């Protein structure tokens, strides 16, 4: 399950362009990760509504995650108790955009589950999307 929250107005449109559903609240969530050449395809399904992203590790150690027309550059840092992921850059197609997107996520692995809290915000617009919850492997 995931608790999904979205912004309003332009923020909601931006989240929808990245593929997120219009629904909010507590929704069933499944995550499927498939190998795709040198990268991976992550399919997050919020109550049957798929959000597909393509991820690959860049030579500089950052992760490039393509969601719809945007590519978010992520910097991952392993800590003693969690994996912290922060936004390191943003591109619209081939064009780099100013580093204004804030957010990222924290994942905490336990014996039989992964807790996550992922959010994205834009200055002047506010919250685009936030989802948090716990995933249990099948």
Overview of the structural elements:
With about 140 residues, this protein is mainly β. The protein has one domain (about 1-135). The protein is built from 1 helix and 12 strands. It has one helix spanning about 10-15, and strands spanning about 1-5, 25, 30-35, 40-45, 50-55, 65, 70-80, 85-90, 95, 100-110, 115-120, 125-135. Strands 1, 2, 3, 4, 5, 6, 7, 8, 9, 10, 11 and 12 form a 12-stranded antiparallel beta sheet that branches. A hairpin with a 3-residue loop joins strand 11 (about 115-120) and strand 12 (about 125-135). The longest helix is centred in the N-terminal third of the chain and has 8 residues, at about 10-15. The chain is globular and about 40 Å long. The relative contact order is 0.19. The model has no long low-confidence stretch (mean pLDDT about 85).
Uncertain regions spanning at least 5 consecutive residues: none
The description of the largest β-sheet is:
12 strands, antiparallel
Tally the structural domains: 1
- Helical proportion? under 10%
Number-wise, the strands total 12
Give the tags.
12 strands
Secondary-structure blueprint:
Layout (H helix, E strand, L loop, with lengths): L1 E5 L3 H8 L7 E3 L1 E8 L2 E8 L2 E9 L5 E5 L2 E9 L4 E10 L2 E3 L4 E8 L4 E9 L3 E10 L3
Short structural description:
The protein is mainly beta.
């Amino acid at each position: 399950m995931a608790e999904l929250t979205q912004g309003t107005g332009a923020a909601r449109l931006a989240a929808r362009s990245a593929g997120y559903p219009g629904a909010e609240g507590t929704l069933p969530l499944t995550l499927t990760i498939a190998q795709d050449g040198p990268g991976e395809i992550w399919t997050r399904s919020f109550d049957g509504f798929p959000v597909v992203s393509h991820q690959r590790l860049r030579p500089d150690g950052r992760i490039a995650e393509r969601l719809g027309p945007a590519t978010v550059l992520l910097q991952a840092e392993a800590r003693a108790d969690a994996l912290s992921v922060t936004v390191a850059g943003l591109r619209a197609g081939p064009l780099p955009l100013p580093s204004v997107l804030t957010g990222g996520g924290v994942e905490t692995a336990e014996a039989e589950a992964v807790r996550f809290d992922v959010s994205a915000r834009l200055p002047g617009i506010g919250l685009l999307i936030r989802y948090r919850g716990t995933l249990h492997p099948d």
